[in-house]
């Protein structure tokens, strides 16, 4: 009997970002409609909703595939993901005109500006969050599904 470990790994990987995107979507809608924040939600949310869960799922499939060959702890494997996604997302956002890079910071949609001295700690916090999510939630789901 074929147990389909890669399909189970993909499903375990998409669990967390699929739930979080519902929270992010609710926050964007609340900010846009209630607080009148001028964020073009249709330009911001569509691409991540399509891409991020798939990237998480494929990243977990890669971890399952690499496991017999090279054992990297799942938390560390998950913490590598933002180090790949953030630069690629930044290049894509600059190319599409969502993000502009200035001398003192980056500006999203010509509305929100973040100075560089805030970006580095937030990126570090993101690495820690990804590590913990992958170690405790996705690792738990992998064990539950019998692929860890």
Short description:
With 148 residues, the chain is mostly helical.
Describe what you observe in this structure:
The chain has helices at 5-33, 41-44, 46-66, 74-96, 116-144; strands at residues 99-101, 105-108, 112-115. It is globular, with a radius of gyration of 17 Å. Strand 2 and strand 3 (112-115) form a beta hairpin. It has one domain (5-144). Strands 1-2-3 form a three-stranded antiparallel sheet. The chain contains five helices and three strands, in the order H-H-H-H-E-E-E-H. The chain is mostly helical and 148 residues long. Helix 3 (46-66) packs antiparallel against helix 4 and helix 4 (74-96) packs across helix 5 (116-144).
Element order: H for helix, E for strand: HHHHEEEH
Spatial order of the strands forming the largest sheet: 1-2-3
What is the CA-atom radius of gyration, in angstroms?
17 Å
SS class = mainly alpha
Mind describing the biggest β-sheet? 3 strands, antiparallel
Please state the average pLDDT score: 87
- Report how far apart the termini are: 19 Å
What is the tally of beta strands? 3
Strand percentage lies at 5-15%
User: Residue ranges: pLDDT <50 for 5 or more in a row?
Assistant: none
Oligomer classification: single chain
């Amino acid at each position: 009997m074929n147990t389909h470990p890669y399909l189970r790994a993909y499903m375990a990987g998409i669990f967390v970002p699929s739930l979080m995107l519902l929270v992010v979507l609710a926050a964007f809608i609340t900010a846009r409609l209630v607080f009148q924040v001028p964020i073009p939600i249709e330009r911001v949310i569509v691409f991540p909703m399509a891409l991020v869960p798939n990237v998480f799922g494929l990243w977990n499939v890669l971890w399952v595939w690499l496991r017999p060959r090279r054992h990297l702890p799942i938390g560390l494997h998950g913490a590598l993901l933002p180090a790949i996604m953030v630069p690629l997302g930044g290049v894509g956002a600059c190319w599409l005109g969502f993000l502009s890079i200035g001398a003192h910071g980056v500006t999203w949609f010509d509305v929100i500006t973040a100075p560089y001295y805030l970006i580095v700690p937030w990126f570090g916090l993101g690495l820690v969050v990804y590590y913990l999510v992958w170690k405790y939630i996705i690792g738990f789901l992998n064990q539950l599904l019998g692929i860890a």
